Amino acid sequence: MAQSPGSATLLSVLGTPLPLIQAPMAGVQGSALAIAVCRAGGLGSLPCAMLASEAIIAEITAIRVATDAPFNANFFCHVRREPSEAESARWADALASYAAEFGPPPKSSPKGASRRPFDAAVADLLEPLAPPVVSFHFGLPAPDLLARVRSWGSRILASATTVAEARWLAERGVDAIIAQGVEAGGHRGSFLSEEITTQVGTFALVPQVVDAVGVPVIAAGGIADARGVRAALALGAAGVQVGTAFLLCPEATTAPAHRAAIRDSAPEETALTNLYSGRPARGIVTRLMRDLGPMGEAPPPFPHASTMLAPLRAAAEARGSTDFTPLWRGQNRGAFDGIPAGEVIRALSEGLS
Amino acid sequence: MAQSPGSATLLSVLGTPLPLIQAPMAGVQGSALAIAVCRAGGLGSLPCAMLASEAIIAEITAIRVATDAPFNANFFCHVRREPSEAESARWADALASYAAEFGPPPKSSPKGASRRPFDAAVADLLEPLAPPVVSFHFGLPAPDLLARVRSWGSRILASATTVAEARWLAERGVDAIIAQGVEAGGHRGSFLSEEITTQVGTFALVPQVVDAVGVPVIAAGGIADARGVRAALALGAAGVQVGTAFLLCPEATTAPAHRAAIRDSAPEETALTNLYSGRPARGIVTRLMRDLGPMGEAPPPFPHASTMLAPLRAAAEARGSTDFTPLWRGQNRGAFDGIPAGEVIRALSEGLS
């Protein structure tokens, strides 16, 4: 197959032998998965949005110690907003029907809860670590912060879920754009619209983003084997980002019950849901999603839905139930199961030739 | 590129030089588009679900007269149900807010309204015409009817929107399966579930259907140029079905306002909606969809939402408004505009080599 436009440019941006990126997946992986991918010639990613400052430093240091290969540190760029009392009460009400089974939900979210957006404090701690690649989800940080990241030499990736978002990112000078199709597991990277009908399938998104921007495009969503890599390149992508296919790797920290749910679920058994965090994300349909409808009005702003749901989730998990657990996966889990991440990279790389 | 599994089998099923199918698009095309596609080596399709018996005969005869090439006659297989009084009243209520602008909606749907399912009477009229290929949407007709279609030599295609639907169709002996990804314009072919969260993107659907069934798989949804054809084959499809890319052809009967809306809309400006017919279909977001939400509880069973909406639509269209008009299109309209359908086939065929 002919090289796609931007292939050489993308490899120079990533600094890797292969244009294959392991998607950052907060909560189900740390440095171990990223290291295994880096060693195999892909770009390993460390999801930092749910890590405390000390953990970010420790995990990046672990990668640096383990490999000289480039890696990616991923951050969220949501605009943080505390829920109003009414918003907290609405979510507590929605969860109150489970009180008889699992105890009452909390009335509000703890202040400064999980998943902080990229800010000056994060930039301060990141500067001496200077990850070769930094990727952003939910848009980009403020221009001065973005300039700081650039100033220490990190190359910048960001996710677009629509052609409009891709243009927006290209105008702000990102080095490459991840075109995240609606098949992808986990959180949608969308930031210009909250309307989920805007979300476009990978097959339609990739070629239209390629035509709309001048930077290399990385296809994401539904890619889980060499066929998918080959198809993404045929659509004009310069590389791919793969998430779900790594969830059953030994280097991932995916919980046993989550692994079992991934193995047992059909591609049509996922949905976009905002119930687990307040923002739409794709996961396996659970009791909570069936009860409240996967996309609801009740959840408070991201990420407070998660923190207020936490006690219910913990109580259910203690009884062996995943009824209230986010079970992220995309619409194509592929066939890898228990295979080391380096082997997954090698299998995916067969789609490059 | 290596030939995909089932390529030779698919060509023998279709009887065409090229594994390229023009999607049947009821309401925006007749025999003229099908003839142009057949003459260019693709499989032209005639949508029959909205045609009276005489028109089916006339249109198929027109194709037979114009070309010796094989063609496809497409039918719907929904289970027809008249709306209850309560269902009609609910839909009339939902539309009543427009009464001041456009006059009151009808209180019920005319009996025996448009879009009849494939039944014995249709089989009777089709038998002497014996289309080389017959395709079904919304499942399959009853086994005895399906056996009749087979008995006169027609090859049978049907649409699957999930892996489960693909398996169901394969078990019933269809000759090839159209894997309709969520990007596709117009009506979803889904029939095992009414839940739209089950709908899978083309990138994830095609390889998983290929792995699940033994018959050739035709990829549909988001394919609008040679890149898409190449990518579909890379995913394991034996051929493709393309709809939206033909909507601006001179041989299509797409209304001028619909053509303008297609040209002016972004890929992220479509949604799945059940408001226009009672079943989910992808079209450009309109005022009706914004007002009621694209997927609503109010519409009566397919196709009665359409017939009760007709007066409002007609009144608005008379004033030059498409606020209540179904503006079907997929998430990738491609770049063809005013190009004859034969040229579109030739452009798509560049993705085959």
Describe the main β-sheet of chain A briefly.
Answer: 8 strands, parallel
Question: Strands of the largest sheet of chain A, in order across it?
Answer: 1-9-8-6-5-4-3-2
Which geometry of chain A do the CA atoms define?
A: globular
Which pair of chains has the greatest number of interface residues, and how are they split between the two chains? A-B, 45 and 45 residues
Number of DSSP helical runs of chain A: 14
Number of β-strand runs of chain A:
11
CATH architecture of the largest domain in chain A: Alpha-Beta Barrel
Distance between the termini of chain A: 7 Å
- What structural class do helix, strand and pairing data of chain A support? alpha/beta
Rg over CA atoms of chain A = 19 Å
Helical amount of chain A: 25-40%
Question: SSE string of chain A, helix = H, strand = E?
Answer: HEHEHEHHHEHEHEEHEHEHEEHHH
Average pLDDT reading of chain A: 95
Provide the β-strand percentage band of chain A.
5-15%
Uncertain stretches of 5 or more adjacent residues of chain A: none
**Could you name the CATH topology of the largest domain in chain A?**
TIM Barrel
The CATH homologous superfamily name of the largest domain in chain A equals Aldolase class I
| Main CATH class of the largest domain in chain A | Alpha Beta
Helix and strand topology:
The structure is a homodimer.
Chain A: H1 7-14, E1 20-22, H2 31-39, E2 44-47, H3 53-66, E3 71-76, H4 85-95, H5 99-102, H6 120-126, E4 133-137, H7 143-151, E5 155-160, H8 163-171, E6 176-180, E7 186-187, H9 202-212, E8 217-220, H10 226-234, E9 239-242, H11 256-264, E10 270-273, E11 281-284, H12 287-292, H13 304-318, H14 341-349
Parallel strand pairs in A: 1-9, 2-3, 3-4, 4-5, 5-6, 6-8, 8-9
Antiparallel strand pairs in A: 7-11, 10-11
